[in-house]
Every structure is written in structure tokens, then in C-alpha cells.
Amino acid sequence: EDQVTQSPEALRLQEGESSSLNCSYTVSGLRGLFWYRQDPGKGPEFLFTLYSAGEEKEKERLKATLTKKESFLHITAPKPEDSATYLCGVGRQLGGGANNLFFGTGTRLTVIP
Amino acid sequence: NAGVTQTPKFRVLKTGQSMTLLCAQDMNHEYMYWYRQDPGMGLRLIHYSVGEGTTAKGEVPDGYNVSRLKKQNFLLGLESAAPSQTSVYFCASSYSWDSTDTQYFGPGTRLTVL
């Protein structure tokens, strides 16, 4: 059975305190590992896509990495504006070539000034 | 370039009432999707479309119908709303299925069924 588990559920950091968010997955026929950021009352905002083990991508203070079983979202020297819920989704092929994103429940990050 | 827009933003229904949620995208995307987001469960796919005039069922399609009469629009209908359909609904679209496939989400519709 396909599963995506994100940990921790919630994380509080002091401004400047680096940390990592984890996404472990079990899925047949992986078509990409996607990270999104979601602010309260808003839709998910795309951050990264990773396709193969060993791949890494960076954007400002965020860096995403991928292994065969999990992905990490590293946050370096976070700022209060990084506070949000971070969603991890794995792509699964649907009919007609569409891609179903199967999401975890997210990690709610709070960065305290 | 507005991206993905959703109408309405909020709605309250009584059990048994019907309504239609509208999703529009201006990115010329082929693929469109409807998800629902519930506390503790993550986003789940309801229905999707791989092009104008096509629709297909996702993980949780029961109680919903969809239509894609125009490429830029994807409609989600509830014929007889139930309290279990209280949720936040997100529409997403993507250009294609290949390695550049990234789904872009709308701002959501918060639906409450009493």
C-alpha cells in the first residue's frame, strides 16, 4: 500500500536555528517527489521536484534531497517568513498520463523571532 | 497571468443542496485535477482530466461529478451535499505528464455542509 509519512507533525524553531523535515514514502512507480509550501487559508505553492535518488535542489534557505526511501527538506538559518506547513507529495501515474500527487499530512513549521 | 483561480472562496450548504465549484486556469495546461483537503488526512484526488472533454475518477470520487467542456475550465459538482463533504477543495493544473510536470494549485474553496 502506498504511504507518505511526514515528520515531525509540528516544529518550532528560533530564528537562525537550522533543522530538517522528513518525508518517508512507499510507493510503486514513483513519478517524482514534490515539496510544496502552504500558508494558512492558501493553496499549496510549489517548491521542488526530485526524480532520482541522490538528487538535490536548493532555493534560498531551503534544500531538498532524495533517497530511495525518503526525502529531507533542510532549512538553513530560517526566518519568521518561513513559517508555513510544508507538504510532501509523491507522484503516481494515472490513466492518460496524468500524475496523482499522493500527499503526506504535512509539517507545520513555526519560526520564532 | 492569474494562474489557477477558484470560485467561490467560501460556501455554506444545507444537506441535500447542490452546487458547482468552478476552476479556471490561464496557463494553457492540458491536465486539471480536483483535490480535497481534510485535517489529518492530507490532500486526496477526487477527479481529474487529461484534456478538454475528458474526465476520470481519482481516489475519492463518490458524491461528486465533473465536467471539462473548455480546456481552461474544470467544474466540480455536488448533486446532493452531505456533511461528510465539508472540506477545503483545491483545483490544480499541469502542462503535461513528463518530467516537467508540476501541478499548480488554486487558492481553494472552503465548503461547509450543515
Uncertain ranges of chain B: none
Specify the structural class of chain A: mainly beta
Helix content of chain A: under 10%
Strand content of chain B: over 45%
Specify the oligomeric state.
heterodimer
- The overall pLDDT of chain B, averaged over residues, is 93
- Fraction of residues in H or I helices of chain B: under 10%
Characterize the largest beta sheet of chain B: strand count, sense, and whether it forms a barrel.
7 strands, mixed
Rg over CA atoms of chain A? 14 Å
Q: Specify the number of helices of chain B.
A: 0
Keywords, separated by commas or semicolons:
heterodimer, A: mainly beta, six-stranded mixed beta sheet, five-stranded antiparallel beta sheet, B: 114 residues, seven-stranded mixed beta sheet, four-stranded antiparallel beta sheet, 0% helix, globular
Question: What does this protein look like?
Answer:
The complex is a heterodimer of chains A (113) and B (114). With 113 residues, chain A is mainly β. In chain A, strands 2, 4, 5, 9, 10 and 11 form a 6-stranded mixed β-sheet that branches. A 5-stranded antiparallel β-sheet of chain A has the order 1-3-8-7-6, with no helix packed on it. Chain A is globular. With 114 residues, chain B is an all-beta fold. Chain B is built from no helices and 11 strands. In chain B, the strands form 2 sheets. In chain B, strands 2, 4, 5, 6, 9, 10 and 11 form a 7-stranded mixed β-sheet that branches. Chain B has a 4-stranded antiparallel β-sheet with strand order 1-3-8-7, with no helix packed on it. In chain B, a hairpin with a 5-residue loop joins strand 7 and strand 8. Chain B is globular and about 35 Å long. In chain B, 35% of the residues are buried. Chains A and B meet through strand 4, strand 5, strand 9 and strand 10 of A and strand 4, strand 5, strand 9 and strand 10 of B.
